[in-house]
Amino acid sequence: MMDMQNDTAGVIMSNLQAKWNVDVTAYSPMPAHANCPSRRTKVWWAERRGSQVRGNRIRPSHLPPDSAARAQRNFPRSTVFFPNNVACYHIMAAALDAVLAKYTASGQDTNDKLLGASFIVINKDETLYSNAAGRLDFPTEARPWELNTFTYVASLTKAITSTAVMQLVEQGKLRLDDDMRKIVPELGDMQILRGFDEDEKPILEDNITPITLRMLLTHTVGLGYDLMPELQKWSKSIGRTVTNLSGTLEGFKTPLFFVPGEGWYYGTATDWAGQALERVTGTSLGAYLAEHIFGPLGMKDTGFWPDKMPHVAERTAAFQIRGSDGSSLSPGSSPRNVGPNAIDSGGAGLWTTAQDYSIFLSALLNNTLVKKETVDEMFRPQLDERQARQFEKLTAEWGGSLAVEFELDMELNHGLVGCINMRDVPGKRKKGSLQWSGMCNSHWWLDPETGVAGVLLVQSQPHADPVVTRLYDDLERAVYGELLKRS
């Protein structure tokens, strides 16, 4: 058995050295006298400290129910869990470590680099891999980027808000196909923007079609973001000075692009779903999430207002902006100019860490927050043919920025929590996987067929930074190609 495992490890070492240019001498094998895992061993984990490797056997069935969440909080900075039938070597971590190191700056030069990144991959039982690389800020002596580095995740908020709303659907306090205008009257005031006349005045039409919760969660209601040229033109024509980036309820009040349900457009719909939650619960979205999601899961580093979370101040990442030439980084600032009357933005307001977000993804995999049948509905493709084609069309027109991990011809749909790829991605996730990304280029995905989920947190702009796109692609390919195929 030991000879066979040593042969396997040698092949893996050679592959890693050739494919990822990894210095495999930094990864020592387990000593010959160690108890190597058999096919019956459920999980081995190994941590890298310098060139030393230490292995211990963990039997998940013997751990308490909260062990998955606790593991993600307590395990070391670089930890990898190996599935059964894998030789007892720490080699697999090298591929993922090397990818993170390749894309993060070690000195002043940030050309085609990021300051830092954190990456976690899980399945329903344990953490498969977790690591961070780089630093929090531009000075080379800045603190290292860690798994608990605090970042603005923008639209990664949407999946959490949608899950909270589905808790209320389970309880019968909200219904997916009820008209939300009765609960959120502001939705009833929204008109449909049909274009502009010769004097550049907006042509608006009253909306008489119900706006359902399902439409809000799937972006089929017709709401956009203020960065869209049509809304910028509309704002200018009426002298509007607030936008959705102000974080105020007034900033979210915009016209619709079409009759609700007749298309797909990306915008503030999830913010309005969060407002529906607030109206029926009588509490703020932040307070609800703290009581029903963050608290039960132990997500202590997640919230809407960093100034009210002093414990994360020293580990908050600096904002970075990629130059127009697509090369080096320069210091940036928060993309949100939040005003004094800002609300808890259910679409783009949260700050969190990779550790915390992976706990949330674990809860989705384990049906912890809502029942399995609810999760199944959340993960089910919701768009009809017309809506799906509009989703694909806009994704292509926007340079693939809504789904940078796919080719532009990918068949797409949308669940109640995110985008769904309707075909397998060669070397990566299976069909039926869900994903979304945020304005500052953080990403999550969840692959129900494989039973794996992952989160990548960074803090760079503009959205769809090509460096992050390449990093994310390399990480996912390393996960599926170097780790999970051996499970």
TrEMBL record:
Q: Domain named Beta-lactamase-related: which ranges?
A: 111-470
Q: Name one GO molecular function term.
A: hydrolase activity
A Pfam cross-reference name: Beta-lactamase
Q: Would you say which domain of life the source belongs to?
A: Eukaryota
Cross-referenced InterPro entries, in alphabetical order?
Beta-lactam-related, Beta-lactam/transpept-like, Diverse_Enzym_Activities
Q: Which UniProt keywords apply?
A: Hydrolase
Family assignment from sequence similarity: Belongs to the class-A beta-lactamase family.
Q: What is this protein called?
A: Beta-lactamase
Q: Which species expresses this protein natively?
A: Colletotrichum lupini
